[in-house]
Amino acid sequence: MIETERLTRRYGNFTAVDALSIRAEPGQVLGLLGPNGAGKSTAMRMIAGFLAPSAGTARVCGHDVQREPLAARRALGYLPEGAPSYGEMTVREFLVFIARMRRLGADVGRRRFDEVVGWLQLEDVLEAGIDTLSKGLRRRVGLAQAILHDPPVLMLDEPTDGLDPNQKHTVRQLIDAMARERTILISTHLLEEVHALCNRVVILAHGRLQADATPAELEARSRYHGAVSFSAPGSGVSQEMLGRLPQVAAIEVDPLDGRITVFPKPGARILEPVEQLLREQGLEVSEIQLERGRLDEVFRQITTAPQGAQA
Amino acid sequence: MSPVNAVMRRELRSFFVTPLAWVFLVIFLVLAGILTFYTGDFYERGQADLQPFFMMHPWLYLILVPAVTMRMWAEEAKGGTLELLLTLPQTLWQAMLGKFLAAWLFIGLALALTFPIWLTVNYLGTPDNGVIFAGYLASWLMAGSFVAIGACLSALTRSQVVAFVLTAVVCVLLILAGQPQVLDFFSGALPRRLINALAYLSMLRHFEAIARGVLDLRDVAYFALSIIGWLVAGVLLLELKRVR
Questions:
Q1: How far is A249 from chain B (nearest CA, A)?
Q2: What is the pLDDT of residues B86-124, one digit of tens each?
Q3: Would you say B167 and B150 are in contact if contact means Cβ atoms under 8 Å apart?
Q4: Residue A17: pLDDT above 60?
């Protein structure tokens, strides 16, 4: 479990993280979302014990990171931003070093080493210098380092940053597989990641908590939530008709491909009425879609709001 | 394995995977030899001892120890591995101690590899091997102080060059502090007590005292305290970085 209470970090007059209170439970993948510079990494560094909070507290599995730093760090697997590792070491040397630092005994160390290496498919590069590895492999070495001691809490700072789509997919599968009995906190600025991984999202902007919700709840905040979009040739007629439907708030036509999006009034359901209308008009519709809502739009709306308006 | 041991072994290994360690060893041994025989009048003195050899060590360390210690923390801060290292379950003290011991042992190895000169002097005459042992001890203790200074100052900056220069400057000040010329220079301006304190701070004075074979506890304590003091300062610097 990770808990923070009014966690704050100031650099002179600049407040990088401002009274952040979050909570992640076992079995949960909590996504820390925000634009670059929102304070995600600073918050994680405080939870990991690399930076001391200016105010507030953070606990990992109940251990206060300031008062019981070693117990907190033992419970935590941490992948810092950019997955730093010692470039002059081989993958094997590096992981053995981490096992020693984590005081894994010879037996446990060897078993976990084999498990993690197999899991992250590092067998072929064990004797390669970390400096010579590709970005994706280096990220996997960083992940191996973080999970080597089988921690109940995992904190990953931008785990898929800079990876190609296949590598991203692999890393996400790994995180997903580990999520069941662990508490996982990941930071990202990729919205696709939220859909793929997280069951709860915290959005930060200017160091402040702007939203704490499930991905579905966030999508529901979108203007597009419940909207119906379709492509139909000869749409000039139908636009007028659609506007007359009592549940419809607005209609937009994409100037590029002519795709029509119909927005509902708050709380209204418009898929059926729209379909019915189209059928009655005998209009050919190539494809029709009920929108769940667009996270990117919600994200933009939340993180670009004037400071303080959302807090 | 304790974190101190793990950090120490990692550091030692990282010395030897780069050419740095080998270059260092070669330069140290070559310079120690040349300076002893040419500058130190090893033969001309006509005495079977290693005083000229040991008297060159402060100046050798002045250049070579900063070269070993400059990367200690600066490189980790620059490469981002500091965040990895300091979020592992260990205290700042353990990390500092592991790094210090690695560098100190490495200098100790360089020192041990000068054994041919000890063989030479034993072949040429019958030196007092007790004094020679004291000389090695004095040299290693002084190296320890230099390493501790380097460890502390490397924590101050992300730049290895800055760490090198700062360490060399502090070391040269500590070597020169007790020289008669320096003391004379200040004797008019400063009260006698301060002059004495300044003289006591001098590395050379304590180094020479032990190297002559007089193992006074106060001289040993000077080096022990200097090592501990600089390491404490280094840990405080790291802690300050965490809080600031």
A1: 52
A2: 999 999 999 999 999 999 999 999 999 999 888 988 888
A3: yes
A4: yes
- Kindly report the backbone phi and psi dihedral angles of residue A14, in degrees, each rounded to the nearest multiple of 5, phi listed first: -90, 130
Chain centre distance of CA B26: 17
Does ipTM exceed 0.95? no
* Gap between the Cα atoms of B229 and A200, Å rounded: 49
Is B89 in CB contact (< 8 Å) with chain A? Answer: yes
Nearest neighbour of A78 by CB, restricted to B5, B10, B87 = B87
pTM beyond 0.90: no
Q: What is the CA radius of gyration of chain A?
A: 24
The amino acid at residue A304 is T
Question: Do the chains contact at B90 and A48, CB–CB below 8 Å?
Answer: no
Closest CA to B206 of B129, B121, B144, B118: B144
CA-based R_g, chain B, Å: 19
Query: CB–CB of A52 and B89 under 8 A?
Result: no
Interatomic CA distance for residues A112 and A95, integer angstroms: 10
Question: How would residue A164 be classed by pLDDT, with cut points 50, 70 and 90?
Answer: confident
Residue A178 · residue A278 · CB < 8 Å:
no
**Residue with more model confidence, B62 or A308:** B62
Find which of A170-179, A217-226, B135-144 is predicted with most confidence, using mean pLDDT: B135-144
What is the DSSP track for A268-310? ---HHHHHHHHHHHT---SEEEE----HHHHHHHHHSSPTTS-
Residue B198 burial class via C-beta count within 10 angstroms: exposed 0-12, middle 13-18, buried 19 and up = middle
Provide mean pLDDT across the span A63-92.
95
Six-digit token pair at B84? 């990895």
pLDDT of A136 > 50? The answer is: yes
Chain A residues within an 8 Å CB radius of B81: 84-86
Neighbours of B66 (CB within 10 A): 25
- Chain-chain contact of A84 with B79 (C-beta, under 8 angstroms): yes
List CB contacts of A272: < 8 A, sequence separation 6 or more: none
A139-167 average pLDDT score: 91
Asked if B235 and B98 count as a contact pair (C-beta separation under 8 A), the reply is: no
Kindly give the pairing relationship between strand A29-33 and strand A14-20: unpaired
In which element (H, E) is residue A177 found?
A: helix A165-178
**One-character DSSP codes across A98-133:** HHHHTT--HHHHHHHHHHHHHHTT-GGGTTSBGGGS
